[in-house]
Amino acid sequence: MLLLIIVANAQQNKAEIAEKLKAIEAGWNSSALDKDHGVAYKTKIIAEDYYQLGDNGKVENKAASINKQVVSKETITSVVNGPMTVHFYGTNVATVIGSHMEKGKDKDGKPFTRQYGWADTFMERNGNWQCIGSGSTEYKKDK
Questions:
Q1: Which H helix or E strand runs over 9?
Q2: Which long-range contacts (CB under 8 A, 24 or more apart) does 24-32 make?
Q3: Which is nearest to 96 in space by CA: 23, 5, 31?
Q4: Rounded distance, CA 116 to CA 114, Å?
Q5: What is the model's pTM?
Q6: What is the chain's pLDDT, residue by residue, as a tens digit (143 residues)?
Q7: Phi and psi dihedrals of 99, rounded to 5?
Q8: Largest CA distance in the chain
Q9: DSSP H or E segment with residue 53
Q10: Which CATH topology does 2-139 take?
């Protein structure tokens, strides 16, 4: 009986953590609407040893990833988050897989609509969940 209670509590905790991670992701995507293009939010949630494989095929560390947003001349006007799933690996590592669509204007003022798919891996460190790695791709429409 005790084992069943422990398993039930672990599953409940995972469900709560999954919702927390989805909320972090939703906030990350929506932070593109901020005046700083999400720099402050991203700086807070990604680890110092973070790496990403961007939709441009380049591997970037935390500093390079954030700098890309600092110098961005785009304006994001709308973000719609798609469905997300969370997969756990032990008790302190999880991957969130999802998508989002954004609308805005590029540096020349030309409107765009883009949709991305991504996978972000989080690790709990000292009670905080931080993103340690990401990969994304832009879904291109056939012309």
A1: helix 2-30
A2: 24/122, 24/129, 24/131, 25/81, 25/84, 25/96, 25/98, 25/120, 26/81, 26/84, 28/131, 29/79, 29/81, 29/100, 29/102, 30/79, 30/81, 32/76, 32/79, 32/102
A3: 23
A4: 7
A5: 0.87
A6: 544 444 444 555 999 999 999 999 999 999 999 989 899 999 999 999 999 998 778 899 999 999 988 888 889 999 999 999 999 999 999 999 999 999 999 999 999 999 999 999 999 999 999 999 999 999 887 65
A7: -150, 165
A8: 65
A9: strand 46-53
A10: Nuclear Transport Factor 2; Chain: A, (3.10.450)
Q: What residues pair up with 85 in beta bridges, in sequence order?
A: 97
Which residue has tokens 């040893």? 49
Residue 106, helix vs strand vs coil: coil
The CA radius of gyration of the chain, in Å to the nearest whole number, is 17
- Alpha-carbon distance 74 to 116, whole Å? 16
Q: 117 near 136, Cβ under 8 Å?
A: yes
Question: Domains of the chain: which residue ranges?
Answer: 2-139
